[in-house]
Design goal:
Nucleotidyltransferase, domain 5; five-stranded mixed β-sheet; 19% strand; binds 5'-O-[(R)-(carboxyoxy)(hydroxy)phosphoryl]adenosine; binds zinc ion
C-alpha cells in the first residue's frame, strides 16, 4: 500500500503547531511554536492575543514542518486540522489555513477532534497499541475516562463534574504563587515536598464511581492557605504542591483501576497535558505493574498540545473515509464522539 503522508495543523489554544506524519505512526517532523512566554505576563491564555500570534506564526511553522520532514506539499496525501474543542479564534486560524492549502492543492481535508488527537499520541511511540484499550484523558479543559473501542470511537465511562485536572493544577499553582502554566511548576516544586504532609480531600462521587471532581481539593488548598494567613503562619509551598498533587493523582489512578477491573481492560493509556506529570506517570505505571496490565503513555512532548497527535488521528480518520468540506468550521465546544 502507498504511504499516507498527513500534514497536520493544531492551533486550538496557545501552541501553533504543524507536523508531517507517515501512516499514522511515524512522525517525520513535529514543530511547536509556544506562546507561553507571552501569556505568562497575564497569568493565563488571552484568547485575542493567541489568535493574533497564530496568524503570525502559522505559515512559518508549516514551512518548517515540511522542511524538517524533507517533503513538499506535492508529497502530502491529506491535510488534518484540529477544529474543536478550543478557543474559537485560535481554532479558526488553523481551520482557515488547512482549508486554503487543501483547496489550492486539491487535497482531502480532515477535521480532527482535539481530544481524539491526545488519545492518538499513544499510537506514535507504541506500534503494538491498537483499540480496544482504556484511556484516561487529562488536559487543561478535559478529564475523561474512556474505552477506546476503535480508532476515533469512544465509550465515555466517566468525566469531571467541575474543574478539569489541568485546570485544578493551574488554579492551585496560581494560589501558591507559581504562576502560569501551573501544571509543570507544581510538578517540579512537588519533587521537593512531602506528599503526606497535608491530608487534602479525594473527590469521590457515590452515584458514578468513574466521574471526577476537583473543586473540593482546590477549595481545600485555598482554605489551608487562608487559614495559615489568618494565623500569620508560614506555609511550606513544596509540601502543599506535593500533597495536592498526590490527592489528584490518587483519584485518577483509583478510578482508572476500578474501571479497568469492572470492564476487564488490561491495557491502560493516559493522554493530555497532565499525562506528562511525573507523579501520575509513576503511580499509574506502578498500579498497572501490580495488576499485570500493560501501560502506555506518550513522551511528555507528545502529551501537551502538538500537531503530531493530530496527524496520527487524521490518518485513522482518513482510512475510515472521513472527509470534510469547505464549510468546515471551528467548533469551540465540540463533544467527544461528535462529528
Ligand atoms: O493538553 P494540554 O496541553 O492542553 C489542553 O488541551 O488543555 O493540557 C494543558 C494542561 C494545563 O492545565 C497544564 O497545567 C497541564 O496540562 N500540565 C500539567 C503538566 N504539564 C502540563 N499538569 C501537571 N503536571 C505537568 N507536568
Ligand atoms: Zn490539548
Amino acid at each position: 500500500m502507498e504511504d499516507v503522508l498527513i500534514l497536520a495543523i493544531e492551533s486550538s489554544c496557545d501552541e501553533t503547531a504543524a507536523s508531517v506524519v507517515k501512516n499514522g505512526r511515524t512522525v517525520l517532523s513535529n514543530v511547536i511554536s509556544s506562546q507561553i512566554a507571552l501569556h505568562t505576563l497575564y497569568g493565563g491564555v488571552v484568547p485575542e492575543i493567541a489568535s493574533r500570534k497564530h496568524i503570525e506564526k502559522i505559515n512559518q511553522v508549516i514551512t518548517q514542518a515540511l522542511r524538517d520532514a524533507s517533503v513538499t506539499l506535492s508529497d502530502i496525501t491529506a491535510i488534518g486540522v484540529t477544529y474543536g474543542p478550543g478557543l474559537v479564534g485560535a481554532l479558526l486560524v488553523g481551520v482557515a489555513e488547512a482549508k486554503a492549502i487543501a483547496y489550492a492543492r486539491h487535497l482531502p481535508l480532515i477535521g480532527v477532534h482535539h481530544i481524539e488527537g491526545h488519545v492518538s499520541a499513544n499510537y506514535i511511540e507504541h506500534p503494538d497499541l491498537e483499540p480496544p484499550f482504556l484511556c484516561l484523558i487529562v488536559s487543561g479543559g478535559h478529564t475523561h475516562l474512556v474505552i477506546v473501542k476503535d480508532y476515533g470511537e469512544f465509550e465515555i465511562l466517566g468525566r469531571t463534574r467541575d474543574d478539569a485536572a489541568g485546570e485544578a493544577f493551574d488554579k492551585v499553582a496560581r494560589a501558591i504563587g507559581l504562576g502560569y502554566p501551573g501544571g509543570p511548576k507544581v510538578d517540579a516544586l512537588a519533587r521537593e515536598g512531602n506528599p503526606r504532609a497535608i491530608e487534602f480531600p479525594r473527590g469521590k462521587l457515590s452515584d458514578c464511581p468513574y466521574d471526577f471532581s476537583f473543586s473540593g481539593v482546590k477549595s481545600a488548598v485555598l482554605n489551608y492557605l487562608n487559614g495559615a494567613k489568618m494565623k500569620g503562619e508560614e506555609v511550606n509551598r513544596a509540601d502543599i504542591a506535593a500533597s495536592f498533587q498526590k490527592s489528584v493523582v490518587d483519584v485518577l489512578v483509583d478510578h482508572t483501576m476500578l474501571a479497568a477491573r469492572d470492564f476487564s481492560m488490561d491495557r491502560i493509556a493516559i493522554a493530555g497535558g497532565v499525562a506528562s506529570n511525573g507523579a501520575l506517570r509513576e503511580a499509574m505505571e506502578k498500579a498497572c505493574r501490580r495488576r499485570g496490565f500493560r501501560f502506555y503513555r506518550p513522551s511528555p512532548i507528545l502529551c501537551t498540545d502538538n500537531a503530531a497527535m493530530i496527524g496520527a488521528a487524521a490518518y485513522y480518520e482518513y482510512r475510515k473515509g472521513t472527509r470534510h468540506g469547505w464549510d468546515l468550521n471551528a467548533v469551540p465546544n465540540l463533544k467527544l464522539g461528535e462529528r
